[in-house]
Design brief:
Number of helices of chain B: 12
Order of helices and strands of chain A: EEEHEHEHEEEEHEHE
Largest sheet of chain A: 5 strands, mixed
Strand content of chain B: 15-25%
Number of strands of chain A: 11
Structural class of chain B: alpha/beta
Shape of chain B: globular
Low-confidence stretches of chain A: none
CATH superfamily of the largest domain in chain A: ATPase, nucleotide binding domain
Oligomer: heterodimer
Low-confidence stretches of chain B: none
Chain lengths: ~230, ~375
């Protein structure tokens, strides 16, 4: 009997990560968790026109063909509704054409990337609102949308456990309001999105879906129909 | 016309998520190999109209599924396609943008050319998909969001002879249904109700018939219907079923009269050009209304033009028309690059003065 060879770790997948959930067009190319290239362009609008040229520049700079990619990682928000859809729709189209998985990574998971302890991740919800999500090992409560001046009362019991670190938008003021520590994100947004995806069982990933956290602005029809007589 | 083309079409400009595969062999008509349409009626039912954000949310999570289904039904892979054509406007921007981004992803990943298609051109070129007719022909595009007479002179050449200056007839039907407590979409429910009604009981206006030209208006008709309804409600505390049927019949008859008279005028302008094989074609969801269809057919025959109404599934929003417009543009060398923009406003005829929307943002459609 030949001696049994030790199982070889599969090579880390080549992952293209991107995000347009905020006022930016951000992308990174990673081999597993190792960063090969990244681009972050501040951009208040126009992401729909710029995203693919930015992705193509990133691939060209590293001599990578679309078909060499093994997975996609896409930021699913919360954030600008249109911006989230730009990236999610693009990722779904690419995944279909390339026959590779696309992992949806929330902005909360990206902010908590690289930290072992519990994180309270905060994202700018515009107009004085905040999106807050807790990321810790095990089960996490559903993220929510609130205001800075409503803290800490607006948080459900246990949302921010002892030892939680606040990271993200207005982290210092949120930490002061909650009596805990704040910190900077460990890495840039597109890199974090790629790294979170690299830690997942990619072949079992569901299709990415936007994380809106707010219902659409719509009111039921106002004009009541007339009474119908017999 | 040198070789067979197979194009994937994607449409998401209003409340239908659609994908289709269309093939054209040289010198032949188009063949629709698959045409998938996912509607969103249920999502919008409680709001009495289409809510753009709700529509956009649904499109973003259904487009790739519609494309997969269209490929499966056509029994083809993306590698069999020659290009991807996508509606790039005009329409509800959230949906259009989702479609454009999904199409870019497919084009990049499958190394296919990308073609941005004007949604209205998709409707306006449908008669050539089904019947291979020659230019120039006259087109009435009449739907929930649009109403215009177009002289179609070429794949990229449209002259608008007239259009609505306010609401589209489809919008007016929806509003009428809401005022009378009928379900959405309003077109089919008003038409059904009108069958048992007496059109002459209520005197409703025929807006703009007293003015020359082919422009139309439906806003005043809507208001007149509201007033007639309110008078009945005030007098008797509600509407009887017969009142509702009569109001529907009167409303529909007014829309029919307006469309018929304006079509007569548009046909006059068209026939004066002396087309060799004159054709008057309709498209859009409102063209599904039988009373409207019948009257337009009569008007067309009186003018000496062949009347062409595509099957209902090709009158309402679909992606086969986008794939077909893509084939027509492809044969003319039309290609777009990865910076293709989604446009909420994109008039087919940019030279005629704007009827709807103006100022900084420009004409709507």
């Amino acid at each position: 009997m030949p001696p049994e060879l030790p199982p070889e770790a599969p090579p880390a997948p080549l992952i293209l990560a991107f995000d347009t959930a905020g006022a930016h067009c951000a992308a990174a190319l990673l081999r597993g968790t190792r960063v090969l290239a990244e681009r972050i362009l501040p951009m208040p609008r126009g992401q729909g026109e710029r995203l693919f040229p930015v992705l193509e520049e990133l691939l060209a700079a590293t001599g990578t063909d679309w078909r060499a990619l093994e997975a996609l990682a896409v930021g699913t928000g919360p954030g600008n509704f249109t911006g989230i859809r730009i990236s999610v729709a693009a990722a779904r189209g690419l995944a279909l054409a390339l026959g590779i998985p696309a992992a949806g990574v929330s902005g909360f998971e990206a902010l908590a990337c690289g930290r072992a302890g519990p994180v309270l991740a905060s994202i700018d919800g515009r107009g004085g609102r905040l999106y807050l999500g807790r990321i810790a090992p095990g089960r996490n409560p559903p993220p929510l949308s609130t205001r800075l001046d409503a803290l800490p009362a607006a948080l459900p019991e246990g949302f921010c456990p002892p030892g939680c670190t606040v990271i993200g938008h207005e982290a210092g003021r949120i930490a002061a309001a909650l009596g805990c520590a704040s910190a900077e994100a460990a890495c840039s947004l597109p890199v974090a999105i790629g790294r979170v995806a690299a830690g997942r069982a990619l072949e079992r990933e569901p299709r990415p879906a936007p994380l809106y956290l707010r219902p659409p602005d719509a009111a039921p029809a106002r004009d009541a129909p007339p009474a119908l007589l017999p | 016309m040198d070789r067979t083309l197979i194009i994937l079409g994607i449409e998401s400009s209003c409340d239908d998520t659609a994908a289709a595969v269309v093939r054209q062999r040289p010198g032949q008509r188009g063949e629709i190999l698959s045409s998938v349409v996912f509607g969103q009626g249920d999502l919008h039912a409680a709001f009495g109209g289409i809510v753009p954000e709700i529509a956009a949310r649904a499109h973003a999570e259904k487009l790739d599924i519609a494309v997969e289904q269209a490929l499966t039904e056509a029994d083809m892979a993306l590698s069999d396609m020659d290009a991807v054509a996508v509606t790039a406007g005009p329409g509800l921007i959230g949906g259009v943008l989702s479609g454009v981004m999904c199409a870019k992803g497919i084009a990049a990943g499958a190394r296919l050319p990308l073609i941005g298609v004007n949604h209205l051109a998709g409707h306006a070129l449908t008669p050539r998909l089904i019947d291979g007719i020659a230019f120039p022909y006259l087109m009435l595009l009449v739907s929930g969001g649009h109403c215009q007479f177009l002289l179609v002179r070429g794949v990229d050449s449209f002259l608008r002879l007239g259009g609505t200056i306010d609401d589209a007839p489809g919008e007016a039907f929806d509003k009428a249904a809401r005022l009378l407590g009928l379900p959405q979409p309003g077109g089919p429910s008003v038409e059904r109700e009108a069958r048992g009604g007496e059109a002459r009981r209520f005197a409703l206006p025929r807006p703009l018939l007293d003015r020359p030209g082919c422009d139309l208006s439906f806003s005043g008709l809507k208001t007149a219907l509201l007033r007639a309804r309110n008078r009945l409600v005030e007098a008797q505390g509600g509407l009887r079923h017969q009142d509702r049927a009569d109001l529907c019949a009167g409303f529909q008859a007014a829309v029919v009269d307006v469309l018929a008279e304006k079509s007569r005028r548009a046909l006059g302008e068209y026939m004066a050009l002396g087309p060799a094989e004159p054709v008057f074609a309709v498209a859009g969801g409102v063209a599904a209304n039988k009373a409207i269809r019948t009257e337009l057919e009569t008007v067309s025959q009186e003018a000496g033009a062949r009347f062409l109404a595509p099957p209902i599934a090709l009158c309402t929003d679909n992606a086969a028309m986008i794939a077909w417009a893509g084939i027509e543009r492809y044969r003319q060398g039309g290609r777009d690059d990865m910076s293709l923009a989604a446009r909420p406003r994109w008039p087919l005829d940019s030279r005629s003065p704007a009827l709807l929307g103006s100022g900084r943002k420009g004409a709507k459609a």
